[in-house]
Prior knowledge:
The complex is a heterodimer of chains A (406) and B (432). Chain A has 406 residues and is mainly alpha-helical. Chain A has 5 helices and 3 strands. In chain A, helix 2 packs parallel to helix 3 (134-330). Chain B is 13% helix and 44% strand. In chain B, the strands form 7 sheets. In chain B, strands 3-2-4-5-6 form a 5-stranded mixed beta sheet, covered by helices on one side. Chain B has a 4-stranded antiparallel beta sheet with strand order 9-8-7-30, with no helix packed on it. In chain B, strands 10-11-12-13 form a 4-stranded antiparallel beta sheet, with no helix packed on it. In chain B, helix 2 packs across helix 4. Chain B starts with a helix and ends with a strand. Chains A and B meet through helix 3, helix 4 and strand 3 of A and helix 1, strand 1 and helix 4 of B.
Amino acid sequence: MPDQTHKSFGVKSALLAICVHAAIVLAVGVNIIFDNVLDSDSTSTSVQPIQARAVTEEAINAELELIRQREEQERLRILDQNKQLEQARREQQEAEQKLALIESRREVEEERIQKAEQARQTQEDELRELENVTRQKQENLTAIEKEQSIMQTALKKLEQEKQEREKAAEEIRTQELASKQKQAEELESLHKEKARLKQELAQLEIAKQERLQAEDKRQQEIRKEKERKKAAAKLEEEKKEKERQAAIEREEKERLAAIEKKKRQEREAQDKKRKVEQAKLAELAKAQETERRKEEEIRQRRIAEEQRRNKAISEFSKYIPAIRNKVENEWTVLDVSESFKTTVLVKIDVSGEVMSATVTNSSGSDEFDRSVTIAIRKASPLPIPPDPEFYNYIQEFQFSFSNPSS
Amino acid sequence: MPKIASKFLLIVVLLLAGSYANAVVTIEIDQGVKRGIPIAIVPFGIPQDIDEGLELDEVIRSDLSRTGRFDVKKVDGFLQTPTKVEDVIFADWRLIGVDYLVIGSIERVDEINSRLETRLFNVFDEKQIFGSQFIVSTSNDRQVMHRIANEVYKRVTGTKSSFHTRIAYSIASVSSENKTEHKLVVADYDGHNATVVLKTDNPILSPSWSPDSEMITYSILEKNQSKVWVQKISSGKRQVVAEFEGQNRSPSWSPDGTRLAFTISRKGNSDIFVLTLATGEIVQLTRDRQIDTEPAWSPDADYIVFTSNRGKGAQIYRVRANENQLVERMTMYGKSNSRASYSPSGEQLILITDQGKGNQVGIFDIESKSITVVSPTSIDDSAVYSPNGDMLMYIVEGRDRHIKILSPDGRVQSRVEFVEGAVKQVAWSSDN
């Protein structure tokens, strides 16, 4: 939509410019014509001595008619010039409209900036979500500020253009005023020379026609030149606009690049963080592996230990009947009717000497428990495998005493 | 994943730990030796001015020895004779094979009284099991010793003993006038402190203690009729409780003290009756043409055992105390079995059995119906259990009739002293 308006504004302004230029060319052309006419008049006056000629009434009338026609033409031309002035005013208006347009464009631009701002904010939000980095925000702000300053310079430029255009319009006006005065003077001289000119009108007519034709041609060329120039100016302007757009785009790109950079940095930071975490995990895994190995080692050691223990116990079990015999011989049974059971944990030294005999599960009868511990004590030293290698595994064992079934 | 791994490892560790815990070797012991528990009772420390011949500690040694449950070490084998805790060298006592040690010391309090302090130790863990203090005088010193012996017995064997109880026995002696005297004597269980509670011209038979040990029942044969008497020991007051037609004999006090079982004999027939003391009512329990005699109550008072010749020879039967005519034969073996009475547990009977070697003391096991002869002699009579079953007592007949105490396993026997005269029958008081 803004593009279309922009386009239509462009077309309109182009047409307006063409019209203005055409008016200027016309005015200039009239001047030239008059100058030539006067020049040729003076030269002809100086070169050709006035001769008394026989002029018929008809010829004078015809010449008068011609002058009238020329006057008419002149009037039309002035009208035309007025029209052109009008047109110049309109052009100025249009230039103002264009300014308004530029203003609106600026608004559009501002809107875009606003959008960009919104985008930036969204970006910021994103960034904030990722990490509350205020630095980024500041950077974005400065970027926007830069953009705004660029926009201000652009506005300044537009303002300058407007001023230039006004100046040009002023120039045209002054030129027109000058030409009006000249025209008045010319009219006067024309009136003065009317009679003199009447004579030469017919002759001059042909030359004039020829001159007009040449002038037309020249004007066309000038117009063409102007158009070319205008086209070039337009191109220049478009180029400038493009550059400005490009600058904005670049700015935007830079901003985006900055955002991208920020994002990349964040990504990199995250990557780094992830890497650190991975490293940590790896370390943990390694530690666990070490732990596992250690446990495995412990397990293996335990198994080996278990095997040694089993061997020790199987060796020890050969001595159990002897131990039992010795303890039974030392146990003076109590004549009690209740059935008692006592468990005693025994610790022996390497020679089988009983170091301690602790009741771990009492029969409930102190006397029964005591009879049991005394029996174990009295049976000390207990017969055990002489190999001290087994001692570790047999240094602690249990006795379970129950009174004899009578 | 690491969690699972660690869990797995944990399980493994637990399994190993579990197997380790389960693998503690346990040695089962269910055989021992029946013998005296070795104990040393160190002579008590006595101040110089106290009679040296007193030897109170010997009372404890004798008490413990009589039960057969202790191997009471002889004093001359001691390596030391400590009287105070700090002097005890336990290793010395272990060295001579002692499990338990008793020490004590006496201090004079005044002219009559002394303070006795005693302690019992476990020689192996070197810990005191109990300590006690008594004020002793010549009037109670033996009783105090019996109490200490009871405590030692209890703390070592876990069961009660009867060293504090008394006995009653009847004796016949010839007086200076060449006349036969019959006496009922009450004494400490070991014969000391004997007191004649009844003196009569007629034979005193079958003494039996009341459950509170305050009264005695007996029968006295007078001319052609015997009557049942009840006598209070402390006062000597007595009265006839049964003088039914015929011979009223063999009274036995019921465990609750309200009734007496006794026999009434008429024309060669003797049956068991129960007399309710409060009312004088009697209930006949047996009706047999043969002789049923020597009734004795079971501890739960459900049964009365008696001797009967209703079968071949004398055997032991029992009848329900509350119902008539339901009689069971108990003893099946031996030429004759008689004079049965219950053990305190109610599981055995002590009786006089003739297994072909004369009359001996036997223990009849009610469940297995087996008889174990426990006396070494063969002229025995009147055997009884002590109230706590820790000793037996019986009379050895013959020219020198005397009372013997026997350990329940028969290994240890000792003569009851100070019995002057031919002892006829003996009864042991209750625990009270």
